[in-house]
User: Fold these one by one.
Assistant:
Number 1:
Amino acid sequence: MKILVVEDDKTVGDYVRRGLDEAGYHVDLVGDGDEGLRRASGRGAGYDMMVLDLRLPKLSGIDVLRTLRDRGVGLPVLVLTAQDSVDFKVQALRMGADDYVTKPFAFEELLARVEALGRRPKAIAPPTLKVNGLVLDTGSREVTRDGKPIELTPKEYAVLEYLMRHQGRVMSRTLITEYAWDYHFDPGTNIVDVVITRLRKKIDHAKEPKLIHTVRGVGYVVRA
Amino acid sequence: MTVWYATALILSIGVFAVVLYFSRRSATYQDLDRRIQSEADLTAGILAESYHARGVLVEKDTAGRPVLVQEVAAVLEVVPDFLLVTSRDGRLLFASPDARALTFAEFEQLNAITGPPDASARLPGRFRIEPNGPTLHYLVRPVPDAGEQFGAIFAAADTRDAELRLEQLLTTILIAFVVGVVPAIFVGRWIAGRALEPVDQMITEVREITDGRTLHRRLAVPMERDELGRLAETLNQMMARLERNFAALRRFTADASHELKTPLTVVRAGVERAITRPDVPPETLAPLEETLQEVNRMTELLDSLLTLARADEGRAELHREPVDLREIIAEAGETGELLAEHAGVGMEIRLPPEPVVVSVDRSRVRQLALNLIENAVKYTPRGGQVSVELAGSDGRGVFTVADTGIGIAPGDLPHIFDRFWRADSARTRTSERAGTGLGLAISKWIAEAHGGTIEVQSRPGRGTTFTVGLPRV
């Protein structure tokens, strides 16, 4: 699957390209609107999706979008914008954008929206996540350990899913919070600690081996 | 306006009437004084001429009393008012018909003035004949050119006529006052109303142009280039300037949001890339995690500022959709339970069995609920209790967040919705970082932007209750 990323800021552009690369996409990065429009509407380029920054040199994102749609190009477009006002988003959607992500964004959010737009099975999320005897079914949202069902609240489920999806990797509290609380919530307390305490009672209590591990000062990791 | 006009009118007419009355009064009494003066002078002249012509002017009447000779007395008979002529030794020689008409007791009162030998040295004056007689103005003068026979001439006039005329004048003034002023006030009010009508209209128009959305509107400028026309033009110029400033502010807001958020995105991207690498040692992860937290705090602060800036302009939009408030409160409530558990505070959530559907911006109301619940937990000491309750009443969805926390001092209550307002730092648990100070300001805006209300009741040491009402649409 080929994605065209149009972003003038090099750091952000590189970051998006590398992240999407890792997620298994083929990514081309261009730095201005003219070039983006040329590539996207050129025949044979064969892009499946475009990630478009709205503020670009030469030709603005809105103009790129409008011209593309005027030319009848139906390529799915995900817009990156610093404007989080509703009317601006509405304007972008009316211009033919398919979705948007507000800067600054968590890569997880961008990836989730790219996946949704691409309408394909999640590359890094097989329907069932397994760590040792702990099984999480992302379809039915059912969790079992050693075959016994475990009841989880929505936030507990979200935190566990995130950790299991990145099993073996230390996930910081902030990243976990962002994922489980819709990316824009900063309670100022380590609310994740509370969820982890609950999860441990339900998952690791009187069981061996322990699956949820604390990394002091940073966050948590799920591994066998 | 009308009251001022009426007051001024009444005052000026009143002053006019008082001045008129008193000047008439003093003129009337001066006339009276001149009259008795001329009567006395005339009498003195007649006596002097008669003396030159005849010498002796006193004769004895049939009872042997001295009187003025018949011929002279006959001349003096025609003098009106009160006229007395006395001899050198104070005896009465002549009294005019008016004086003779008095009763004896009354007459004696006149005599008391003319009787004494030095009577002619008296100054003019006034007195009232008791018990029921008229008030008299009098004067006494000597008779120098009539030999040694006469003591003094006493002339007096009563003020009854004069007072009657003054009373009539007063009545006339009063009637004219009532008849003139009352209609003048009503007419004045009508005229003022007519003159001010365009001003009223202008006030209404200006009031309608309240926020950034309607600033492009202008007042209608009347055809006449009078004061009102110039006022309308001036206001229009002012609004044009305001409109330009608002546009500049909007541009600045948009630019600032982009200029600040792009570097934040860059920082965030760098940190996130580093923090998610599988091989980073934990001692490197910790500072990265702190940086990420800080980036999020800055993002949140920036979003709050931009939200309020747009709200000030009247441009903050709501994306309304029908929402069951139970979902929002339940979700915020779960977060609240987690926060409460962390803080050692009890949390109770009561939801009604039936849906409470309102047309609101889901993410905004979620933010509002989270703000209030978070605050309640933050300001409630360990062992306290936070209760969240949702109820659907007629036409409104109402939720309350009540805590048993430290409460808010009465003096602070009016300020808690102010931007960047914080009670003294002793309020928060020291282990926690303070918020942005914008949470309640934004909460208030969210509630009011939906046409709803937010209210607070609090007693220091007992707890605080926030009540939010959102209209069902």
Number 2:
Amino acid sequence: MGILLLYHPRERRAALTPPEKPVSPQKSEPSGQTQTVIPSGRQLGSYQVRSLLGKGGMGEVYRAHDPKLARDVAIKTLPAEFAGHAEWLARFQREARMLAALNHPNIAALYGLEESGGVHYLVMELVEGETLAERLHRASPLAPNEALEICAQVAEALQAAHEKSITHRDIKPANIR
Amino acid sequence: MTPQGRVKVLDFGLAKPSGKAGTSGEAALTEYGTEQGRIIGTPGYMSPEQVRGLEVDARTDIWAFGCVLYELLAGQRAFRGQTISDVLARVLEREPDWKDLPVATPAKVRSLLAECLEKDPGRRLQSIGEAHRRIAEAQSRGRGLTRRQLAAASGLAAAAALVAAALDVGSLRSRLASASPAIQSVAVLPLANLSGDPAQEYFSDGLTDALITSLSRISALKVISRTSIMQYKGAKKTLRDIARELGVEAIIEGSVVRSGGRVRINAQLIQAATEKNLWAESYERDMQDLLRLQSEVAQAIAQRVQVTLTPQEQTRLAARQRVNPEAYDAYLKGCVHYYRVTPEDFETAMKYFRLALEKDPNFAQAYAGIAWVEGSRAHIGMTPPEDGWPKAKAAAAKALSLDPALTEAHGALAVVHYLYDWDWTAADAEFRRALKLDPNNALMQATYAEFLAVLHRWDEWEPRIRRALELDPNNAFFQALYGMQLLFRRRYDDAMVELRKALPMDPNSLVTHFTLWQAYYLKRMQPEAFAEAKTSLSLWGQAEAAEALQRGYARGGYREANRLAAESLAARAQREYVTPFIVAAFYVEAGLNSRAVDWLEKSFLAHDSQVVYVNVDPTFDVLRDDPRFQALLSRLKFPPR
């Protein structure tokens, strides 16, 4: 009668399924290259954009200041095509709502999904410090104890998400900070 | 990671930009431009099903998690190559190079990695919670870095450490080395009954109790008692809120399923401030090994919170004998009824304890249960004292002969010595023995506090009752006892404050209303005292006396009210047992002092256990010069103050 495994495999519901294919045929296929970078100092909604943190085919991430709550946040803009694509926007809104419900110390919190002047953006917890990818770049491998402690916390985050049927789909050191 | 050593996972489930150039190295591949911008992963961390473009689910995260863990330990990616197609081919076809893992990697972690990196999602580790549990196990084995140590290792704290090191290298090092989540207080939330059958509720509740009892034996740990816990059954509050309300650092929660002769318990220990899972385990056993199982769980928790067990505690926790499942089942049912404190429930509890003994004649806990029911009934006056107390005493002795270290039995015996034998020395010794075995037993702490108050040992008294309240903050009974003991201490205003706190916890607590009645009487607040006396009589089931009280109050005020109530109770005492001590209380408040002493004498002769209060109860202060009252005190042979 050995110790049995903890946690029965949880009921696995289908991971987030993509929405039906866009139904409006008049919409052009997005090119993904039309986003313009918001210059620092510019206002986006009620946020003051401070600096660009990252940039890529799917939008940009900025450091911004929220004067109402007097805190810095991360703002992630969505590609301009999303604005014209009701289906995609709806999907993002659904995902954002689910994420907003994920309140866990090991998950960067999502504060909101907002829109200003045609730009849709996510307002998120700004997590300071280097990413695990940067850390590995600096000094690798990690001490086993540290590796285990970090992964224990990552597992906690994933557990919380999986319990709400949210799948990350892109776990990698660059997404762990 | 944050300066507190906390790691955060970013970018959940949302489309995201590629990483900053030169840091993360490569971008996530997305289906953007071809479909809906759905992420299909980053090559080195993509699962085989992602690579194939199949439907993905949580198991894809488990794969990627395995890749990250591998990389952190090995310093190399699990799947690497010159080109993306090289990498993807390895993901689909090749095993990671296990030789790249450091030699010291624990076997548990190696097998965890192999299971996470299983190509077929059907054969892969199915739950990330399981991965967490295995890591936690490996950590507790190898004394993993704590969050504080981890913080020290990260940049910001490292700078602070440098400054500190310049000042005092030695002490910093020892502080870091000893850093651990030192948990000194826990609450066990009611274990969930996963059987799907509400009739099995007693079983999960019983095991919750048993777990509390096992943990209570650890003196270095404060463990919240049952009444305060049971209020959280099905509560929607967060663990953090519950922990704050109960004043504990960690919460234990879990579930129980019983099927056939087997029982399975899942339990986890969660640090309240961080909601971090400190420990989790699942056990499955035959019913007959249930007692041993509880001890195992308690030991594992003690180990995880790093409290130090004394050698005796270790022995106590280890030496739990096998139990007859049917007997244990009956015992648990009996306990549930005992806690309801009504005549019918006491009767039902007795039936179950007797049934337990039929199944296993050597089951010590069932005898202890009988001792508590008999003693309680006798003290409240549900049975004549000369009938109930000797039975309680015999049952406690029998329990101790079967298990000399059974806390509940020592406790029962202490109460018998105190309330029935009036053997103050023996009672004191037995209380101390019970509390040494089980320092977290709120009932024992509160009862010992009362004993100390009755003997005017005021220096020792208050810490005991305060400890009881700390251990069981929502228990109306202990709150009322505190009020009563403050009254004994003649701190009437404090008593009133504490008694009013007890009311919302249980508006129908007899002891609260009786004590409030006394408190208002002593404060000469007659209308309030009258109202409380009336409520008390109703709750006690003395409707006639309550009517008499009402009649008297209308006719001649407070004294007349008490006189008529006393006479009504006295008349009833002709037909059945009525606690004489209470009759005496009504007479003294009627101003009929001589009649009051008559009934106190009756109380002594009937061996009414409440008579011990004469030594301290301010209600009877007006009688203290009466020679008969003094004679009564000397017959009780209280130790000199």
Number 3:
Amino acid sequence: MRLFLKPTNTSADRPLRLALPKGRLTDRTLDALRAAGIPVPADLVHSRKLIHDVSAYTRGPLGVGLEILLLKNTDVPVYVEHGVAELGVAGTDVLYEAQAEVFRPYTFDFGSCDIAVAAPRGTEASTLRLRPWLRVATKYRRFARDFFAARSMTVEIIPLSGSVELAPALGMADAILDLVETGKTLEENGLEIMEVVGQTHVKLIANHTISTRTRRAIERLVELLDAGRETP
Amino acid sequence: MSLNTSLSQEVGLRRKVAQTALEIFAGWSYQEIDVPLLDHFDQLREVIDPNDANRTFRLIDREGNLLVLRSDVTPAIARIYAHQLQGVPVPLRVCYANKIVRLQRSFTREQFENYQIGVEMIGASGLAAELEVILVCLEVLSALGVRDFQVNVGHVGIYRRLLALSAVPTDPRRELTRAIANRDPAEVRAVAHRLGLRDNLTASFLALTRMAGGERQLAELERLHPHDAELQRACQHLREGAAVLEALGAADRFQIDLGLIDGPVYYTGLDFRVFAEGVGRALGGGGRYDDLIGSFGAPTPAVGFALKLDALMNVLYPHASAELSELDVPAGAAVRIDPNALAPSFQAALDRRRSGAVTRLVVRSGRAPKPLPR
């Protein structure tokens, strides 16, 4: 009976695709892969190519081939959710903004940082909260909207895509909501943290509609990454 | 707001897909049921998730009652059964292919309308009924020619039992559910830590997040809760189901996956989700809902599944044209209509139709009629 035909084998040997955000996170992800015993070459990212087949390095330890895609960070969840890439690496801030429905089987130990509301030095947090119409500049529109709505605060969200720290200095915003790594950029632009309102983490993400074979490969990858983390 | 429109080719293909499914349902002795387009909202609200309720479209009738446009077929059928069909011999097997309207997130747009095609088997408890609907579902996917489809089978009863053992309050419960559904062990650990859960419960919730589920996942839960009869029973139930599917040769088609806990809130036991590899979103899913009918009338066990026609169309005909396609009219189908002799012309057309032949009327102008488009 047709019902029990074997699945077609066309996809069985196809390499998995891993979507990485171009930039800092790519280097650190590749470092983590190497620490996990998957010897992907470090100079990968120095070429202009956006797709790299590293199957030769992954078939041994993972049992499957791997292609690495280099994308803009906000595009990573899009590729993974559509299933074009089975795997990706993305920050929870990006995932939240995209409301991405993806699995998150592993959390890397790099790239975690605070999400904070910051305002010009000397601002009292309590007076900030009492302003009837607070203007907040941010790259994280959805997070900001949900956060202030949960506190029943009326806030004007000013959407920016970079150099958010400039907005209060020029009087466009009363405060900013942004990622804070060292706090140095805040300090140099005359801002200080009023409140830490969340945290982001960098996750390995996976598409929902993956076969058992792919799930096993991902579980193996997660085990290797865990082991790599313990023996730096 | 963009509303979904589909023209010619896609409409025809949609109908073909729905028809194939309905024929298979009939082949398994399911009777088609018609579900009303409008329903009273108050009763529905009590049985569905508040988030799902928010995504429905509501309107007010002349008496001021709040009505809701059909947004999910299963609760509607449960209500029809509780109010109108109690007393018919069970198990009652019904099927449907119905349009539903609700706001749902889609890749490309805010989508409002979709078709659900599915079956409900009412008044039957036990594994046999669950396996029956899974097999019906697999046959539909096979018959439609969906490639590389897979069904993942879980059991929400296991998660519910773990929640009961750990007494998690409502709000963190939602976070925990989300974290498990996302297969996010770090987040599960964080929530469990905040709640101060016992180690074996934290380990149990973590076990649910395993990507490669299967027997190993069941064994781990049984090891963590050796004396909990309810958990042991649920694990054994899934194991038996898996053995039957394997014996039937479907081993390549399914996987036990206990992280499958984010289906409709009315699911109570075994549940499953079907998808085609690499498509992005599930094609549909199903499960047991033993308490749903009881919330409208006498308690009655039931199980069912629904497929999303949109998702199926995406897999089967990714390039189906949304444009008006050329009609496939056979040669010789044209019947000329002479404006000066309408009755005899139409008589010729009627004769042709009576014989069942495809006919296309062409009004004769002075010139020769244009050839049919190719």
